Amino acid sequence: MSGPTGIALLGATGSIGETAQRVVSRHPDRFRFAAMTAHGNRPALEIAAARWKPSLVGLVNGGGAPLPAGWCHGRECLVQAATHPDAAIVLNAVVGAAGLEATLAAVSAGKRVALANKESLVVGGALMERAARASGGGQVVPVDSEHSALLQCLAGRVGGDGPGLLPVAGVRRFIITASGGPFRAWESERIRGARLEDALNHPTWSMGRKITVDSASLANKALEVIEAHVLFGVPYDRIEVVVHPQSIVHSMVEFEDGSVIAQLGVPSMELPVLYALGYPDRLEDHGVPRFDPVASSPLTFEPVRHDAFPTLGLGVAAGRRGGAAPAVFNAANEAAVSRFLDGSLSFGGIPGAIESALTRLGDRSGDDLPALLAADAAARILVQEFR
Ligand code: NAD
Ligand code: MG
After folding, report:
1. DSSP letter at 99?
2. Is the overall model pTM greater than 0.70, yes or no?
């Protein structure tokens, strides 16, 4: 194929969506946007559409006034964009399980999915793996910085027929780093009563609201442990989390001979986005501030305080349990975060709501998409009613 590779950008108006537009603007010979979608934020989508002139523009909700010719409206836009013939790469930057069907459709259609929407893999990991194998060419490449780091540490070792979307051999341990979020050094009692503005005040990353709250509760790290397991097929016993407040070391891989390889850089999502688009190549780029080891010093590491951050353990246990449990964990967390954002649940209520949903629904089967969607919906209702 000649000319720039077409990308379908789902969630074009979000934090990762904007980052992707910045990255692609530096590589016009290599990439262009063939399709773009957003949820509600029509003015921002109009600006992006005028700039990139994609073949398909999709507004998932918030239509109101008549839409310009050629725009699509409604949830179906996500799958339409994800399977668009002009797009070889689908960059899924939607937040939440709402991105699941689009990821699945893109993988089934043989696309490369540059995946920021980690919830897709948490909810539908097994389905995604089956779809990738059946499609003969469908592929998931992570955008999440920790998983991009793991992939970069694993360079040359991905492949073979083990479990996972990107099967690896010879790994003794993954060490996934966590900034610890704004409450890293807070007493447990104070964390339980934390206010919204405290939770949104992330020390090292600027991101959408949902993932920012997830980073404060460490739900994000639970999603990432499950994501790592699904992507690389590494058993849960070999995946550890360590707190690293500077967010410079993005993750590490320990190999069977004891050697540990880490990937470092200033905290910016531009590099993981670029790496996922160009993988396995490295594309020349100067958009991200250069790493300065002296200015970044010191780099420190601490254990996770599980008593203060129970959501991490709940999520990893759901991952180990399998079936629909990860989908229940994810949906309960999404619903609890949305209640925390609207002020009807305390920060300390988030793990409580998740635990109660897992107790009631954690044994459900997750064999197919309808079963997973049913578990997701049931968990949301339980959390809505949680007191
Ligand atoms: P965001 O809230 O800033 O943006 C979300 C985007 O998705 C917006 O364009 C929005 O219009 C769209 N969207 C929201 N709800 C939707 C729905 N129901 N259906 C379709 N589209 C919808 O979020 P973000 O911070 O960019 O995060 C996006 C994804 O990337 C999340 O899964 C997050 O965990 C992951 N991620 C983000 C970062 C980061 O730095 N922001 C880092 C790693 C991973
Ligand atoms: Mg991450």
Report:
1. G
2. yes
Ligand 1 contacts (CB < 6 A) are 11-17, 38-41, 60, 78, 93-95, 98, 116-119, 144, 205, 207-208, 211, 269
Atom index in ligand 1 nearest the CA of residue 40 equals: 11
Give 237 Cα–ligand 2 centroid separation in angstroms.
Answer: 20
- Percentage of residues of the chain with pLDDT beyond 70: 99
CB under 5 Å of ion ligand 2: residues? 144-146
How far is CA 292 from each of CA 152, 261, 296, 363, rounded to the nearest angstrom? 20, 19, 6, 48
Q: What is the pLDDT along the chain (387 residues), one digit of tens a residue?
A: 579 999 999 999 999 999 999 999 999 999 999 999 999 999 999 999 999 999 999 999 976 778 888 899 999 999 999 999 999 999 999 999 999 999 999 999 999 999 999 999 999 999 999 999 999 899 999 999 999 999 999 988 998 889 999 999 999 999 999 999 999 999 999 999 999 999 999 999 899 999 999 999 999 999 999 999 999 999 999 999 999 999 999 999 999 999 999 999 999 999 999 999 999 999 999 999 999 999 999 999 999 999 999 999 999 999 999 999 999 999 999 999 999 999 999 999 999 999 999 999 999 999 999 999 999 999 999 999 999
Tokens representing 218?
A: 């460490």
State in Å: Cα 18 to ligand 2 middle. 17
DSSP per-residue string spanning 174-225: EEEEE---TTTTS-HHHHHT--HHHHT--SS----HHHHHHHHHTHHHHHHH
Burial of 50-67, coded b for 16+ CB within 10 Å and e otherwise, reads eebebbbbbbbeeeeeee
Indicate the fold that domain 5-142 takes in CATH: Rossmann fold (3.40.50)
Give me the amino acid identity at 325. A
Residue 327 CA to residue 376 CA, distance in Å, equals: 6
**Which H or E run contains 325?**
helix 325-341
Question: What are 179's two structure tokens?
Answer: 């900034």
297: CA distance to ligand 1 center in Å?
31
Q: Where are the domains of the chain?
A: 5-142, 144-180+218-304
Tell me, what amino acid is at 99? G
